[in-house]
Write a structure and sequence with these properties.
Elements (H helix, E strand, L loop, with lengths): L2 H14 L5 H8 L1 H20 L3 H21 L4 H17 L1
Helix pairs in contact: 1-4, 3-4
């Protein structure tokens, strides 16, 4: 699965707000809850990395990316904007 495909799924769940959807429930709970989840997943990722738990790092990174995409959808920011920013940084770095 690509980040773009997952983002489209998230946007669709936000639009349809399907009952029983975890994604829709986060949108219903609001931005503070989404941000809280990002904080939780970040902490769990740091702990997994510190403990050198490779599989847990993979799992927690997936959770962090997932919840970050939910925040982007909440803010109506396309994933492409993040890719553009990363490309801009790479281009700027090469010019130095």
């Amino acid at each position: 699965m690509t980040l773009e495909k997952l983002y489209r799924i998230i946007c669709n769940r936000r639009k349809n707000m399907a009952y029983g959807s975890y994604i829709a429930s986060l949108f219903r709970e609001g931005e503070d809850r989404i941000i809280q989840k990002i904080g939780e997943e970040t902490t769990e990722l740091v702990i997994a990395a510190k403990n050198n738990e490779k599989q847990r790092v993979v799992e927690e990174m997936a959770d962090l990316w997932f919840h970050s995409l939910i925040l982007l959808a909440q803010k109506n920011i396309p994933v492409a904007d993040v890719w553009k920013e990363l490309e801009k940084r790479n281009t700027t770095k090469r010019k130095r």
